[in-house]
Amino acid sequence: MTKSLKINKSTEQGVLELLKYLLENKKVKAVFTLKKIEKKGAVAYSLIADVKDLQDAVPFYPLMPVNAGNLLSRFTLKGSPDELVAAVVKPCELRGFVELIKREQGSLENLLIISSTCGGVYPTKFGVDGTVEKNLSKYWDAVKKGEIPDGSRPTCRSCEEFAPYVADITVDMLGKNDLDKQCMMFLNTKKAEEIAKGFKGDFSDKQMDSKKLDKAREKRGIEKKKLFDEIDKKMNGIDGLIEIFGKCISCHGCSKVCPICYCVLCEFESSDSEYGPSNFETELRKRPGLRVPPGTLYFHLGRLTHISISCVACGACDDVCPSDIPVAMVFKKVSESVQKMFDYIPGKNVDEKIPLITFKKDEFKEFEG
Amino acid sequence: MEKNEEFTPRILAFLCNWCSYAGADLAGTSRLKYPASILPIRVMCSSRVDPIFVLRAYLGGIDGVLVAGCHPGDCHYQEGNYYTRRRFAMLKKVFEETGLESDRLLLSWVSASEGQKYAKVATEFTGKIKELGENSTKNKIFL
Question: Cβ separation of B143 and A308 shorter than 8 Å?
Fold first, then answer.
């Protein structure tokens, strides 16, 4: 049975209290969490080793400057930390991290993962111009009621995977109507139970109320259907795709921030994909003309075939696109049906293999011709 | 292309070295008749085919893509073709979801002794592509 820990403080304060306790008692070497850079609301993930520096820490700030899955992968790629490090991340970041671990790009060893039922985040630009700071109280009101915060990322608005899967500690947030008075955490693993021993709070055996999560899932499901229908109308074959992706300036920002796109030597950035004079000539022999630089569709569809199996729909790609292409919604829509085909939820289980590197002998006969 | 001229599709075929390429060879040495629309590329295993190869060909204006390998259980590398099958299923799904013509893609198993089957697959697939007509990506500028 899951152990629960209740603290009579606001949710964010409660978690900070626990982090403080862990640092002070040297139970963790450092804390990985969002920290404010300046008053306007810009935040960055940081490692904090000193309790004093926790004062600007905002573990559940509704922003995702970078998918933390990427960061944790870089943090653990060449080896895990010697001592325990607590990391506060969002569920989709955690799922991205797990997908990277499956690709041998990191490890959960010596990490204490703290995550929460997530209300979603705002686009990053709102963090920089101060909009998030202004909307904070509205955001938390919406989270309390389990509703969708106005203006949050489209992928968040339509996210049904807002509960973390492999977290050591799950913080109850979404739909918790007294989150400004009380903090509720669930200790899912032995590691978490062990480490929280000695902390002053109410330990009991309560479980997460799944009804309120179902309600929130329903609301987001409706939003998802709406957004999917919208994108589906646009994605009607080659002409629709050209309309969507034609605006692409080939900065490849979407692939750089993607927690799944991890290849150091990316095919689409290699000299193989570069168009030389002879390539242009060949193309012009069969086509009436050619966009320069060519290959935007090849890039996006190629990326779809490479990562749709593991896309966690965090929406980081949408955030960085300078041309406002709805990359994330296209990827979410396509990825969901690909993942459904293999009955796979990316990031759910570290030991479950990525469907494309495993097989069953008797399957998919309908694809053989 | 002029309108009265009959449409001869161009089909790219990724043939695995151990089975399907040998099968195609057998079809040739047995003097079986099949359309000249197929452009074969020999790969060591059908699982060598990255979905983006297919995609690149498709966006390049090829009318059809055939991926052929050993029958399940007969892969020279034990299990390569099982991966191919999953990957192909995934690729087809991506095509369907984005509204591209997934009918232009075909996965088939042809063993080294199946010259007959190779000729049959080539003929039937060519016929199907003829029905579908030219790949419209050929005339697009913005790709």
Answer: no
Give the torsion through C-alpha atoms of B68, B72, B76, B82, to 10 deg.
Answer: 80
CB contact under 8 A, B97 and A305: no
Measured between beta carbons, which residues in chain A are less than 8 angstroms from residue B50?
267
Whether pLDDT at B2 is above 70: no
The candidate with the shortest Cα–Cα distance to A163, out of A226, A108, A94, is A94
Q: What is the pLDDT of residue A369?
A: 82
With contacts defined as CB-CB under 8 Å, which chain A residues touch B108? 368-369
User: Which of A235, A246, A288 has the CB atom closest to B99's CB atom?
Assistant: A235
Total Cβ atoms within 10 A of residue A289: 11
Range scoring the smallest mean pLDDT among A128-132, A339-343, B42-46: A128-132
Looking up tokens 């009380």 gives A182
Interface residues of chain A, partner chain B, Cβ below 8 Å: 235-238, 240-242, 246, 267, 286-291, 294-298, 301-302, 304-306, 308-309, 330, 333-334, 337-338, 341-342, 355-357, 359-361, 363-364, 367-369
Q: Is the peptide bond before A293 cis (omega within 30 degrees of 0)?
A: yes
Nearest to B83 among A235, A297, A356 (CB): A356
Who contacts A28 (Cβ-Cβ below 8 Å, separation ≥6)?
A: A22, A83, A84, A85, A86, A112, A195
- Give me the total of CB pairs closer than 8 Å, taking one residue from chain A and one from chain B: 122
CB–CB of A337 and B55 under 8 A?
A: no
The half-sphere exposure of B31 on its side-chain side, counting CA atoms within 13 A, is 0
Please name the amino acid found at residue A325.
Answer: I
Residue B137 at interface with chain A, using a CB cutoff of 8 Å? yes
Asked whether B20 and B46 are in contact (CB, 8 A), the reply is yes
φ, ψ for residue B132, nearest 5 deg: -70, -25
Spell out the domains of chain B, with CATH numbers in brackets: 11-139 (3.40.50)
Question: Looking at chain A, which residue has its C-alpha nearest residue B136?
Answer: A238
Provide the β-strand partners of residue B109.
B69
pLDDT in tens, A272-313: 888 889 999 988 998 899 998 888 999 999 999 999 999 999
Strand A169-171 relative to strand A183-187, pairing: antiparallel
Chain A contact present for B128, CB below 8 A: no
Nearest Cβ partner for A334 among B73, B94, B108 = B94
CA distance B106 to B88: 9
Helix (H, G, I), strand (E, B) or coil at B42: strand
B74 alpha-carbon distance from chain centroid = 19
- Please state whether the predicted TM-score (pTM) of the whole model is above 0.90: yes
ipTM score here?
A: 0.93
With beta carbons less than 8 A apart as the criterion, state whether A134 and A86 touch. no
Instruction: Give residue A157's Cα distance to chain centre.
Output: 13
